[in-house]
Amino acid sequence: VGCDRSKNLVDICGEKHFQAFVCDALSVPIRSGSCDACISIAVIHHFSTAERRLATIRELARLLRPGGTALIYVWAMEQEYKNQKSKYLKEKNSSENKDKEINTGTARRPLSDQGPDNSSPDSASSDQLLNDLKDESCGAKPAADLRLPVHTNRTSFHSQDLLVPWHLKGGTKKKEESVDTVLVPGGSKELQELSPVFHRYYHVFCEGELEAVCSSLDCVRVQKSYYDQGNWCVILEKL
Hints:
- Pfam families: Methyltransf_11 (PF08241).
- One of its GO terms (biological process) is tRNA methylation.
- The protein is of the alpha+beta class.
- The chain contains 5 helices and 13 strands.
């Protein structure tokens, strides 16, 4: 059984005859102790406070029967680990080629949430989404002006709390959506609209951070903690 915040993604699951429903990860409408196993992939790093991230893991543990296990994946601050670059960083060159396509008036929709789409760099800033920014221990630079930086895709992270630009392709543009405009190649003065650009919040995790959050819960035990292609991962057991 799957669940997601996005109705569109859940509808796709339904079309493929999978069982899925819309819900919030902080309040999953499933009976306590009814799951043998739970998987949370690329979800918890979207919650903007430490309290909400902890509450999400607590809710995940609630669903498990005693002895049940959970697998959690979150984005890592360390995209280069043990002298090895993640796949996310290695794909920078191909990303730059696709940026050229975007600059000629085309845009791609991201295929998955394993990383942001290969959009053109964006150096803008946005208002702060959280009140608990702190001095991070893994090399992140604190936001002195209390504003969140916008990440440049396929580069290393310089802040744990940031916004990632997403270019959505197709669909009908709503009035409140921002739209990029670019000059059409060939010296034409004509302006061409690109798809709307949205900024998604991420909290990227430092080494040991996810394990420490999970270990703070009395109801679970961390079986394993490991790094996998730019993600920090844990396997939990319900006590």
